[in-house]
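Predicting holo structure, magnesium ion bound.
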Amino acid sequence: MKLNVKNIRYLASDDWRVLIATEQGSRNHEVVPTPLITQIAALRSGNGAHKCISNLAKIGLIAKVKNAKYDGYRLTYGGLDYLALHSHTKSSTVYSVGNQIGVGKESDIFVCASETGKQQVLKIHRLGRISFRTVKANRDYLRNRSSASWMYMSRLAAVKEFEFMKALRREGFPVPEPIGQNRHTVIMSLIDAFPMRQISTVGDPAALYAELLSLIVRLAQFGLIHGDFNEFNILVQEKPNEDGSVALIPTVIDFPQMVSISHSNAEYYFDRDVACIKRFFDRRFGFTSDEPGPFFKDSTKKLTKRLDVEVEASGFSKKMAKELDAYMKEHGIDGDAGGVNQDEEEDEDDEQTVGEADDSEIGGESIAAADAQLDHQLEETEVSPAVLA
Ligand code: ADP
Ligand code: MG
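Done. Tokens:
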């Protein structure tokens, strides 16, 4: 999914009001009726809303849904991206957006800059990228509305990531500095390092290996299991020592799937994190350790603190955790490496069918078509570093 921010500076305050109105309306409406958008936006100029609507639709921030019983619009990914970036700009968190540096199944990563020119990372969570159509068992949390769901689930992932990053950072764990969070996005410091996956040789694998395993243990002592502790989510910085050797400094990223040590499968996730590191060091560096473990039971015998409980009491509630959990389980999202489920190919076919819940009251095809068209439009536009305000 491309992010094209070139139009963001040209939106007037009325356009923003109408865009926000569409977002608000979509809390209760799969397709937001045009009169409702106008009503919520409550522009001073009587007829102005229609012009804004057509502006926003033209640049793909909202999409007209044909086939509906009534005339209406829905917010697109692009629209939600703009709203989030607009908020980050207003709070002086982000000044410009640059190149995309990562694309995952569930997120897009961009470099961005602060007002003072400091390089940061913008992570956009995209949990609806895979169709919601397959989600049946847990329909209650979707309340039958697919578009509200992708927005909501993506926001949950962002809130969770941000809250955990803050807690971990506070306790001195090597994670990026959390800078801001809005809607489905997180802003964090840019780590000047590559994922461990891209490192082919290390001078002393034993030291890095020991450090990574002790990180897993320390996380557990704080009540947490990363759940996706692998070579994609560990960035390794190479720092030359004075004696000519090179120190390898790991930073851990990617927290939406973190689980508490009280999780019913906690031990499984813990063991899997450990196994990931062991396997990688064996295959990549030919390094194996004779020492067994670490083991979940030993690691959680003496707890330092319960960050899992602390975070629950913060912005990421138990209810939110449960909803996100249900979604992730349903979609087999539990890791870059391990999380790709067998349905993947099937899911890919569904990529454009976010709105196609089979009992939704609107025609899904037109939404899919609008999405496809939007993607196409955006692909044709050059993406380059752009100042937002
Ligand atoms: P995903 O959920 O898609 O796996 P990640 O948070 O793991 O998202 O980020 C994907 C990739 O983007 C990482 O493997 C890394 O290359 C890059 N990346 C993410 N966050 C940062 C950061 N703070 N600094 C530098 N690179 C990052
Ligand atoms: Mg990752």
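The domain at 8-190+345-387 is CATH 3.30.200.20 (Phosphorylase Kinase; domain 1).
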